What we know:
By secondary structure, the protein is of the alpha+beta class. Helices cover about 45% and strands about 25% of the residues.
Amino acid sequence: MVINSHFILMRMEKKMNPKITENINEMVFEIADNLTVKRCNKPAIEFFGNDIIDSNIGEMLHVQGISSIVNDLMNEKSNIYESKFTKKNNEYYFTIIVEPPYLIIHNKTTEMVLKQAKMDFVDLMVHEFSTPLTVLEGHLALLQEKISKASPEVSNSMNKLKKSVKRLSRLIEQLSVISSMELKDYKVKKEPVHLYSLLVEIIEAFKSKIESKSLNIVNKIPESLYLETDPVLLYRCLENVLSNAVKYSYEKGNIYVYTRSQAKKTTFIIKDEGLGINRDEINRIFERFYRGSEAVKSRSTGLGLGLSLVKHSLKLLDGSIEIKSKHRLGTEVNITIPL
Length: 339
């Protein structure tokens, strides 16, 4: 995306700077006082045609919100719009930046098409895997009942199968939740949540992993503390962050969980003494399917969906997340929820 400050500079210089406009992919237009195109760069000509000069911007750019764009140009008001543009029966997705007397258009059609393709793939995978997994879980439970007196080897194999199916079911569930959040289908339902009990429930879910690594979980959340929020979304946030803390902690390490209450907000702090995250990777760990280099080296299971789910959950709660980490020294995650 083009940097607005470049165009503010051009505005101050009162001229279109070819060094900037001809070396970017965005379409750039200088608009005259009569709302016609005075100048434009090569990407603009390639998209709209050679006869674009002297064209009326309102007639050239048939997008929703064009009247507001025109008003901004006339009143010298900076603004940003997201809109669709149709050309020869093809639909394009534009981010339109108004920086009078300039108009900058970022064509993000390819990005949007790829994003939709990913979402369609996830929806298809969730649909195709959900039913077979449910059937498989049912048959495994039935089979385990029938062979209750099986040899230790068979019992061990059955337990491994159950764990694998459970892990895959959880993955499909996470994908389904993320997909519904992105499509804005999820409806937030707030109610009083007893935070101490919620964390105890989450810790219990990781009991076997915690014991296998001899970890010490320090729950410092006040037993009297309640929060009016969506319990499902909050559970998913804390569960995924605590799961990472357990997964990437060294053996016999400590994990601290506590809260900090301020005016109109509560912050959860989850702090571990584990692998940590490389500084240059912190901005990417919220991307779906992204796993940091240390996570990959550790050979731990996972597809990099947890923090993406946390990000979407917090967006629905109007919350925020901040991560501080030192490589090989541990990570601190701050999750803030408004009251």
